[in-house]
Amino acid sequence: MKHSQAIVVRILEGLRDKNISQKLLAEKLGVSSQQVSEILKGKENFTVQTIT
Fold first, then answer.
1. How many C-beta atoms surround the C-beta of residue 39 within 10 A?
2. Which residues make Cβ contacts (< 8 Å) with residue 26, sequence separation at least 6?
3. Is this prediction's pTM over 0.85?
4. What is the pLDDT along the chain (52 residues), one digit of tens a residue?
5. What is the DSSP string of 2-25?
6. Residue 17 class from Cβ within 10 Å (0-12 exposed, 13-18 middle, 19+ buried)?
7. Which of 39, 6, 7, 5 is nearest to 22 (CA)?
8. Are 4 and 38 contacting, i.e. CB atoms less than 8 angstroms apart?
9. What share of the chain is helix, strand, coil (3-state, %, to 5)?
């Protein structure tokens, strides 16, 4: 769980630093904005494939 939280924090920092919205991230990843939101809220587990 600790590792997942650390990854989420780094993703959120990266989004903020690059001024990218979760919606734009979702579009670039080819997933729904809801899925990105759920992952970043810790409500959905993510796999190594999702991370990469």
1. 21
2. 32, 33, 35, 36
3. no
4. 678 888 889 999 999 999 999 999 999 988 899 989 988 888 877 777 766 6
5. HHHHHHHHHHHHHHHHHT--HHHH
6. exposed
7. 39
8. no
9. 70, 0, 30
What separation in angstroms does the CA of 41 have from each of 4, 9, 35?
A: 11, 10, 10
Of 13, 11, 7, nearest in space to 26 by CA: 11
Cα distances (angstroms) measured from residue 48 to each of 5, 16, 25, 45 = 14, 22, 17, 10
44: helix, coil or strand?
coil
What would the two tokens of residue 34 be? 């809801």
